[in-house]
Specification:
single chain; about 350 residues; alpha+beta; outer membrane lipoprotein receptor (LolB), chain A; twelve-stranded mixed sheet; seven-stranded antiparallel sheet
């Protein structure tokens, strides 16, 4: 898989893009601190064995709940409409999804909120996105039978696909180790730890829990450097491995629903070296040391003012910018609206800015 779209039918679906700069933000947007039960007892394995299990993991028939909490705020586009951006940037973020998979290419994700519910139905050849609050159903016809393996499924509601992308992109830039075992969703799981080799990374380690029975990734946690408390994590808090009824994955727009075509997708770029994407976006560097340079559109630029007012000003090589900082991720908004972001120290951000 080369990369994942960040938007599906107008809703932000959190995924792990190709650079760790975006990866750190994506994982943190919907990340739980899943309570650990007593340490489990599993047979010893090597880091290489856990990596091979992650890379070879295939969808299995299951249902469960994926919950996420960040220990820091996320500057979502909704802040633009906020009357108090500073307040909106305070606190943490929590999201919960109900998920189902039949292990044969069908996947469903459901998020229930006070305003209604949103559902994502992925089937071979077709993807539906349903928003009950707007009575809108968006359909995309997909070629072949790749529905179960498509980028759509590699969202924040699918720990297995996210873990696979992290290992694929970052294992070469990490020291791998097995950090013992734990209980996730009441099931024994191994813990694979990826420790960045980049000295300027804000991330101390990324820990992936792999179910001891199915060998499927079930939780991801991101720890800041020097901290034993995750700043972000994401995975199952309930999980049942069992056959799922076909009706769970079937969707027909209800009477009165508006059926629309999918919106234009977000461009992606390769994490290897410095590469360019549409609209001048690019990634500078590799692995945990990579930094994303994002050229905002005119429409996006018009909405950054509210966010900038809530952020501290910072001197950059090209003028005064605005710094958004978290324990595992930083972003600088430059005077021309360009955003330079990564899971790196400020000095690395400034180094990239000086080369623009």
């Amino acid at each position: 898989m080369k990369g994942f779209n960040l938007k599906v039918r107008g809703k932000v679906l959190y995924s792990v893009p190709i650079a760790i700069a975006s990866s750190a933000l994506a994982v943190s947007v919907i990340a739980p601190q899943i309570a650990r039960a007593s340490t489990s007892t599993l047979a010893p394995v090597s880091p290489e064995q856990l990596v091979s299990w992650i890379q070879a993991a295939h969808p299995i028939s299951l249902n469960g709940t994926v919950t996420g909490i960040t220990s820091f705020p996320i500057p979502l586009p909704s802040l633009v409409k906020s009357s108090n951006p500073q307040s909106a940037l305070g606190g943490s973020t929590t999201e919960t999804y109900n998920v189902w998979s039949n292990g044969r290419g069908s996947f469903r994700s459901q998020q229930v909120t006070n305003g209604g519910e949103t559902d994502l139905y992925v089937n071979p050849g077709s993807v539906w996105y349903w928003n009950s609050s707007t009575l809108t159903a968006t359909n995309e016809t997909r070629s072949g039978s790749s529905g179960g393996q498509s980028g759509v499924q590699a969202t924040g509601s699918n720990p297995s696909a996210t873990a696979s992308e992290i290992v694929s992109r970052l294992s070469a830039f990490s020291t791998l180790s097995v950090s013992g075992s734990q209980m996730v969703a009441g099931r024994p799981a191994y813990t694979l730890s990826l420790t960045p080799t980049a000295a300027d990374s804000l991330i101390g380690s990324v820990q992936i829990a792999i179910d001891g029975e199915t060998h499927v990734p079930v939780q991801i946690q991101v720890f800041p450097k020097g901290s034993s408390t995750p700043a972000a994590s994401f995975g199952f808090n309930t999980l049942t491995v069992a056959p799922q009824p076909t009706s769970v994955f079937s969707f027909t727009p209800p009477a009165g629903a508006k059926v629309v075509e999918p919106s234009t997708q977000v461009p992606t770029a390769s994490a290897q070296g410095t590469s360019k994407a549409a609209s001048g976006n690019k990634i500078v560097g590799t692995g945990f040391d990579s930094v994303a340079v994002i050229r905002l559109s005119a429409k996006q630029l018009s909405g950054t003012g509210a966010i900038e007012k809530s952020l501290p000003a910072v001197a950059t090589p090209v003028g005064v910018g605005y710094l958004y900082s978290t324990p595992i991720f930083q972003a600088v908004i430059l005077p021309n609206g360009t955003v330079v972001a990564g899971a790196v120290e400020t000095a690395r951000i400034m180094q990239v800015i000086s080369g623009l």
